[in-house]
Amino acid sequence: MPAIGLDARLTYYRQGGIPQYTYHLIRELAELDTDNHYAILHSRKDRRDLTAAPNQRRVACWTPAHNRFERLALGIELAPLRLDLLHSPDFIPPHGRGYCKVITIHDLAFLLYPDILTADSRRYYTDQIHDAARCANHIIVVSEATRRDVLDMLDVPSEKIAVIPEAADERYRPQPPDDIERVRQMYNLPPEYILFVGTYEPRKNLGGLLRAYEQLCAELPGAPLLVIAGARGWLYEKAFKLVGELKLDTKVTWLDNLRDVDLPGLYSGAQLLCLPSFYEGFGLPALEAMACGTPVVSSDRGSLPEVVGDAAMQVNPDNPADIAAGLHRVLTNTDLASRLRRRGLERARLFSWREAARRTLAVYHHVLALHSAP
Fold it and tell me: How far is CA 133 from each of CA 123, 127, 162, 372, rounded to the nearest angstrom?
């Protein structure tokens, strides 16, 4: 049977979208595919075993993620494995011959917004993405928006691309009152709050959100606290400084590096989630919030419209007044908020990690069949 490699090294170095994507694929493929043999690539420093089935084996790799010599070094390490296919969830496959290559491109933010990355990260992705897309046998993207970006910016044929959306983890569902209260008490939050979840970086448009929130507070006395939860990214200092300039210090709470286990309760306790991003390759926080029964106010850009559909209030991220108006409507119109909760729960059920893994496995089979054809 074919030997398939799945590169999970990045899960040791960071949490977030790509590691979560990788975890879910490993778990779901364990249920779906008992025939092929899988080599799950781990960092040699990682003491965990991410394998989830007898036909999955742990392979420790010396090559670190995002190393300048990564493509060459990992290619040499993989040679003895005699793989038939390697799936690289983190965009960039190693150099090497004799096996097919599938890559997942989650977004092209580093090309569209180069200032959102550190210089090292920008060089890593920008210098290699064109060659990676060219040498890949197939490219998985997580949204139609990312597919359009790939076609526009990487010059690859459309038949080489498969759109396979992500999904919210099964733990994202409406939480019982006791769990919501536990999270609220843990983070010293009031009964009502507006929530943002994501990395603090320019493309998330925290500046637009803060200016919109300032307008909301002027129009709606007693507006709920704004809770900004996530991790510090690139140029986050500007957002911190803006809070002081707008005199919002007592109205904004930052939750840096929130415990992942507390997110369902945090979503479920919020009056709404606001995600006014200039760009998202998918936008998991919006889907996670909807799965928890939380109304969503989201940007009308990038992938977000296709993720939220008619289950969210869509706003113009360039216009703080429009963001403020969306927040105001959801907070003051109970019928609208109830409708968004109901539609959000229905919408979230359309996305499934099992279906994503099933379609990913179909890509593997398609690529292997083409490679073995005479």
Answer: 16, 12, 13, 21
44-52: long-range contacts at Cβ-Cβ below 8 A with a sequence spacing of 24 or more?
A: 45/12, 46/9, 46/11, 46/12, 48/12, 50/8, 50/11, 50/23, 50/26, 51/26, 52/26, 52/27
pTM score, two decimals? Answer: 0.92
Phi, psi of 188 (to 5 degrees): 55, 50
In the block, residue with structure tokens 């010059």? 155
Among 199-213, 219-233, 254-268, 284-298, which range has the highest average pLDDT? 284-298
pLDDT of residue 102: 98
DSSP letters, 238-302, are HHHHHHHHTT-TTTEEEEET--GGGHHHHHHH-SEEEE--S--SS-HHHHHHHHTT--EEEESST
Secondary structure class of 97 (helix, strand, coil): coil
Q: Are 180 and 269 in contact (CB under 8 A)?
A: yes
- Decide if pLDDT at 74 tops 90: yes
pLDDT at 127: 77
DSSP state of 86: E
Task: Map tokens 């092209």 to a residue.
Answer: 108
Q: Token pair 């008619």 is at which residue? A: 310
More confident call, 92 vs 28: 28
Domains and CATH numbers, the chain: 3-167+352-372 (3.40.50.2000), 177-348 (3.40.50.2000)
Question: How far apart, in whole angstroms, are the C-alpha atoms of residue 123 and residue 77?
Answer: 23
